[in-house]
Amino acid sequence: MFRRKFLTTALATAVALSISSLYGSAYAANLQPTQPKEDWARDSVIYQIYPRSFADSDGDGIGDLPGIVSRLSYLDKLGVDALWLSPFYKSPQADAGYDVADYRLVDPMFGSNEDFERLLKESHARGMKVIVDLVPNHTSDEHAWFQAALKAKPGSPERARYIFRDGRGENGELPPNNWPSVFGQSAWDRVPGEKQWYLHLFDSKQPDLNWENPVVRAEFEQVLRFWLDRGVDGFRIDVAHGLIKEPKMADLVIEEGRENAGALVGPMWDQEGVHEIYRSWRKILDEYPGQRIMVAEAWVSPRERLAQYIRSDEMDQAFNFDYLMTQWDATAFKNVIDSSIALTTTVKAPTTWVTSNHDVVRAPSRYGYSLKDQGKYALPGNGIGPNTPQPDEALGLRRARALAMLTLALPGSTYIYQGEELGLPEHTTMEDKYRQDPMFLRTKGEEIGRDGCRVPLPWKADAPSFGFGPSNKTWLPQPASYAGYAVDRQEKQSDSTLNLYRNLLKLRHEHRLGDGKLHWVEADKDVLAFDNGDIRVVINLGEQTAALPSGSQVLLSSEALPEAGKLPASTAVWLKR
Ligand code: GLC
Ligand code: MG
């Protein structure tokens, strides 16, 4: 991070100066007491792999680590700096691996620990960093600790690693408080035959850990070291805002009609106590050579609170969900870009730019709606089903391509969710019987859930499972339209979304845009324009054709430009200044 790099460099200079006054400057010039720390993450492009759905090597219909290894040259060619792998640990998969039963073991479904080491080695050999997902808020109910807790008595040390409480009511038949699970229904499950209940902010199979207990802290410090010792470059911290609960665990004030909705603000989120945990982790990461990063997944409100997670002695970056939730509107994008940069600058952390991940409707489908409907049908988590009014696929793709040109030109660190580089839409017509997201299951379909963005990737248009694996099995069905998005087809089309991303990433690196500065330039209504170094970006978020500055040299455009000097609706360009 900038500040740490600055400090080490300043220290090195100070040492060199004091020695130079003793021995003369010639000696000092050759002396390099400490190398500044490597600082790769500030401007990196980090590609999220959702292992279940990336590539399947053995034909069981579930993506795996050898599948990822077999596609590393694809990622290298795409031009990303780092990979983030969603969980591949031993897990009963009640929440697609975000329910971890053993934090040190690769689930056999995904391969072996040796496969992971190979993945790490081969990624590093290609110059790509690898960060892994850490899920500290909860374990799986099949984790040895929780199994032991169930067998042990109330008040035992085994139970003290989780959050058990007596129920209310005469015999403890009512949950200890009214907290809802993020996935719907109560956040409490009763231990059969007992007064005690355990807390799970997510699925019943994801009991929350008690982070007030030093035993829990010590264990996770060891888990961090376990993966750092193997050479990982960092961690994405799942539910980073949830670890500490307000001690009284008072009832939530719940608005009528929102009894089931996960709240953003409340006594279970964003408590001050979480920061001490991240400060202790920072120290551990800094013991290791090179820059090892932590990225916060923290849904907090108001957004200013996010800066706390990325102070210089805590994490390196936090996902910018405000950017992800921005509607297709020029003012909205301008405001979110400005406020994001302003916010992260207060703590000297890089800004991040995120448009998709495994929890939200894919961008081309989100932006395939009118402004009015976007807020209605394409909310995070609340997917699109066969009975939802369908997004306009062509419009959504067009906007997503323009958005990529905006996003990849912004200074800071950018995330790409697998398939985003293909312009892949959400599977918006998946039948209920296939759905596996606990959110869908717990709300009995009231929330459609996240399966639609987790569908296995299409690699080859004319192969079984579109080349996802050697068989025709896929753990979620792929829509027929995915053939048109397959990697092999897109490689052959010079104007495909894949080739657009490859070109954007190449130019972004050459022009060091991630490391640059943004300067707004005046533009027409519904158009945004800014300079970053020697690149000018212009994006038309309106519905009318706009004018381009005369004589501009177009380096890249998200669509063919039918008329010189004109920028069609839902189109963006990179110009040479
Ligand atoms: C995070 C993950 C999500 C998961 C939840 C519970 O929000 O991104 O996929 O369901 O945490 O671990
Ligand atoms: Mg497999």
TrEMBL record:
Domain of life: Bacteria
Keyword hit for Glycoprotein: yes
SMART domains (alphabetical): Aamy
GO molecular function, one term: alpha-amylase activity
Domain Glycosyl hydrolase family 13 catalytic: 48-454
Keywords, comma-separated and alphabetical: Glycoprotein, Signal
GO biological-process terms attached to the record: oligosaccharide catabolic process
UniProt xrefs under Pfam families: Alpha-amylase, DUF3459
SUPFAM superfamilies: (Trans)glycosidases (SSF51445)
CDD domains linked to this entry: AmyAc_OligoGlu_TS
Signal sequence annotation: 1-28
The family this protein is said to belong to: Belongs to the glycosyl hydrolase 13 family.
Annotated protein name in UniProt: Alpha-glucosidase
Source organism of the structure: Azomonas agilis
Taxonomy of the source species: Bacteria, Pseudomonadati, Pseudomonadota, Gammaproteobacteria, Pseudomonadales
